[in-house]
Structure formats: C-alpha cells, structure tokens
C-alpha cells in the first residue's frame, strides 16, 4: 500500500470536497479523501438531554470557544477547539473563525439559504469600478448551479430580480401572510424587491456532503477515505517541482504518514486551504495569496412586533413565512453612502418573543412576554464586505497547533463602507417597519466580528492574470496545473449571498474540467 | 556415539522447531482467571442504574462571590426573577450559587462585569438608602435597577457601564433559572415534556493525547470507521 499513488488526493470532505469526490469518482478517477476529524455518528455521539443535566446548565462552557458565538453547551464539542487549533490576531480586531472538522465539515451544520451570485457580483468592477471582475460570468456557472440545486433540492420561487438569479427550484407557491403583505406594501417606497426565501431542503432532513455527495462517490468503489488525518504539508516532486502528495499526522496517535497522488484538490475551507498552501510554500508567485479575505456583515437587525397579533390573536394567516430582500442599493441607481449592498432576511413568527426586547423584569416582564407572544417579526442583515488587499492572513511563525503545524495570523477589519451599510440597513428596516404599523422592539447597527457569518471567502482569488490572482478560472493554480482549490478561497468578491451554492457549483465545474484534462492526459 | 545419545539427539532436533515456535508466540493466551472472562457480560439488555443530578441534593458553597457580593446577588436574583405563578423563582432554582460557579469559572472580563457590578450596586444602595442592597425593599431596588434596563439584540448587550452588568446579569439569571431542574420539574408536573433540553453532542472520538499518562502509550493507528448498519441512501436524480 505504501507505493500506492492515487489519481487525485482530495483534502477536506465538506461541500466542496464531497462534490469533487462525487464528480471525479463518477468519471472513473481513483480518489483519496483525507479529513482532519472523525466521523460524527448521531446515534453514537449525541443524545437528548435536559439543560439541567449538563455541568453548565446549557451555557457555553466558560473559556471555551470564545470566538464561536454559535456555540452552547449542547453543541460545544462539534466545533474546532481554539486551543487545539489556535489562530492569532490583533486583539483590537478580533476574528471569529468558526470551524468544524467532523467528516462532512460545515456541510453538517448550515442555514441552508441557497442563492446564486449574479453578474452584479461576477462583474462587480465593471459595474462600479471597485476590485476585480471574476474571470467567469453567471452564464458560465449557471448550468452547474442548476445541477447543484437539483442535488440539494433547493426550494424557491422564480421571483428574483436580476441581482438574485432564478434557478432550478422545487416550486414554492404559498401565499404571503398578512404581516408579510404589510411589509411588502410598506417597502415599495424603497423599490425593494421582497422575494420568497430559497432554502436547500436536502433529503431526509439533511443537506450535507455526507448524505448528498459522498454516498454517490462511495458507490463507485473509487473513493478511499481516511478520517483523523491532519494534513501538515503538501509535498513536491524533486524532479518536476509539481505537488505529488502530502504529509499528514494521525490526530489520535500523532504518527506522521505520507500519501502520493497525481493531482491535489484542496477543499478544506477557505482559510485552511490557504494556510496549507502557505505552509507548503506553494503557488504564491503572485504574492496575492492570503489577501482579499472577505465575508458578510452579520449581527445588525431589527426585532419588531405586529400589534394585531398580540394578546393571543396571532394566526398562521397573519404571522408566518420568511422572505429575502436581495440587495437593492447600487443596482439601478448609485447610492452615495457605500458601495455594493446588503440583503434583508425577513421572518414572521408565531413563537415567543425574547425577553431582551423589553426593558422590564419580574411580573411586568412576564406580562409583556404573554402579551407579545406570537407577534414577532424579525429583520436581519447580510451585507457584502469589500475585497481589500490589506484584509489578509499569513503564517504566524511564533505559534503552532496541537500537531506542530504553524497557525494562521488573521488581520482583517471592517471599514466605513461596511459600517455605513449596516447603519443604512437598520434605518431602512425601521422605516419600513414603522410604515407597516409594526412596533420596533430592539435594533442593532453594530456588526459581529469578521468571520461570524461563517462565509469567509477569498485569499486565493481566481483571475486571468497570474500576477494578480492565485487560481485561474478553473480553480487551478496558475503555477501548478495539478493543484486545485475548490472551496471558497477562489472568490473574487463576496456578494451579499450565502456562498454555499456557488462553492458547490465552482467545485463541480472545476472537477469536471480536471477530469477532462486527466482524460486527455493534459494533467 | 552411543546409540542412546544418538536417539536423544534425534529426538531433540525433532522437538527443537516446535520449542522455538512456542517461544516466538509473543502473547500466549493467559489462563482464564474465572469461569467468565472479565470483560464480557455487559450487553444491551443490562439495566442502567438510575442516577440524579447532584445539584439540588448536595450542599454547595460560594467560591467566587464574597459574602457581601453573594448577599447582593441573591437579592438581585430574587428581585429580577421572583416566583411567578407555578414557576419557581431564581432562588428556588439555586441560581445564585450556580452563577457563582459559572462566573467563577469564566474569563476575567466576565468576572469583572459581575464583581464590579455587584460592588457598584451595593455602594449605590448605601449611598442612596444607607442600607446594603440586600436589605432594600422592592420600591427602593426598582429605583436603582429600572433606569439601567435596556432592549438589545443577541450578542450585543449594552456596553454602557452599569447597564452592561444589569442586562447581562438579568439574562444570565433568567437562563440559569429556566434551565434548572426546579423549572423543569414544574413543567413536567404540568404535563409538559422537559422544555430546556436539546441534542447534546459528546466529544467525538476525543483526542486522548493530552491526557497525562495515556499520552505516551497510544498505539500507532489511523482510525477507520466501520460501515454503517444501514444502506447508503440513493436519491432519484
């Protein structure tokens, strides 16, 4: 076995790695998949428990996962521990790096919002002069989006404006609830399109690499997978200078091993792929690697109450449904306060209202909670973060992780463009809510730290010019034709959209290109 | 060679390989110590002993708050979340001592919010009413607390001094109380399933390397995952 050379080594098993494995193995290519963590078996590893039966009554275990706001005591063990795999940053500019190393990666836990990028993103520079255009357009990616949407069973309506392209959806044709209709009417002053939410339904309740992609690859008999394999370095053939495998450390035994492959596909999640390339000193003749880290601002939003739904009067007809307001700033007119724009997620909800929406306590608070129960209308913001050279990651030579691998230094911060965007989003939301007759209970204009959205993209951006980009339009290294990065690292701009559908489509497209090149022996 | 010695030599040669092979067996099976091998017996039909949560049974002492802080905090808990209807209040839920444990286990910044906040609150009570906060009546406590209550969104508590403590403590007190066994027991008595529960994930194949003596005795291996008992899903495409 030690002399085995695989056709393709895929590092990472989430959405992008799973898609690469599916596409490549279905074309007869023999793949080895390495994943840094173990397989999560819900029957073995999880059980329902009351909060009081846990040491911290459901609170996040103190001192752990400080930068994973999503963590609580129930799920604390699924995230990457910040002490085991640390990263560094300037304390004045913290970064929330939210990671999962279980087999399937973050595809096991995601919000399922499923959007295509539009040419307002792919050709953003042509539209407003900022940054760079992608080397591909919506037309290039559209066929792949359609296939991904089929696999992931994306439900949605064909109601998108040009900035939110329609797709291959399971039809959603339910009628708007009364509260949504009121928001839609009130929003007309802003020329704000309000569309049906788009969501990956998956199969059997899950929309993950482990149930939608990897089973197809395993069925071919062409996929070999190893869990708990923490990749330390990509190795290079001394004669050709081309990548030829990797060293990895067994997570449990600390034993170091090596595997060989003709082609390397990185799919470890944006920042881990970049970290691995930087530690391996590969593919960075442009000097661009690590730069242009982007994500989306999350955290700003408004919580409202629909007065007519209070005091037990909430009904499904009045209070239900969700909607997406795609970016509406800087589409047909130029907005002077910021570049690009933001989307709004709308949720009309019959459940309880959070106590922090009332400046009250004790019996008065209890009475408020009772009165307002069933009347909540939530508006949350997803805003595009601009790609800036100075927002970057590099290797921190002073610190290593639990396996002796150098850690990442993350230096990124939001600018006035993002802060102004957040402020505008909340002002507009409050204005529309007022016009709709809703009561604004609470609001926030301060974005969460960068990274919180778990939508980190960029740092190995694609482009036609090898001096200004790391990858070409096929997610292939400009320098090493047998090296691909198929996760979010290739993004040129972030957009307001959740990136998962685009990552999947890019991985599918890159993998089909790779299979073709291997078939014709160009690689 | 005498015939007797020749025969002995031939017999020895014949026995030698077997004797050598016997020595090469590194771990010969030890004799059974008892009629049933010690590691067998537990099976899916084995009854599971019933245990209870220690909190509520055992006596607990404060380890973080000073006696004065604990008195202030206990009054604050009772003031912000008293028993309402059939639900226990923060005191019945053991919230003051639970939060003493939680905050005492927390990073310094969180400790400071509580220590500073409790000291400030007690000082305010003494300045305004010449009484410790723990001895204020509801009207007096309301006059101190209410002006600092704010509305706020998840992950964004007020950053203003004093408002930060009051609002963070208020949320912690409510969460600790509503996640308590006392609260759950009342819900169960009312016919509700426990309402504070969720899917708890144990450590998944925890990394044992850091655990003291075990760290140098780990066998070199790469974990393989056994095949699932169920078949791979196949979806129409």
UniProtKB/TrEMBL annotation, chain A:
SUPFAM superfamilies xrefs: FAD-linked reductases, C-terminal domain, FAD/NAD(P)-binding domain
GO molecular function ontology, one term from the record: FAD binding
Domain Glucose-methanol-choline oxidoreductase C-terminal positions: 390-506
One Pfam family named in its UniProt record: GMC_oxred_C
Domain FAD-binding: 6-36
Ribosomal protein listed as a keyword: no
Domain of life: Bacteria
Signal sequence coordinates: none
Keywords linked to the UniProt accession: FAD, Flavoprotein, Oxidoreductase
Keyword RNA-binding attached: no
Cofactor: FAD
Family: Belongs to the GMC oxidoreductase family.
Protein known as: Choline dehydrogenase-like flavoprotein
Originating organism: Tunturiibacter lichenicola
Source organism phylogeny: Bacteria, Pseudomonadati, Acidobacteriota, Terriglobia, Terriglobales
Automatic annotation (TrEMBL), chain B:
Top-rank taxon: Bacteria
InterPro entries on file: Gluconate_2DH_su3
Pfam families in UniProt: Gluconate_2-dh3 (PF13618)
Protein's name according to its UniProt entry: Gluconate 2-dehydrogenase subunit 3 family protein
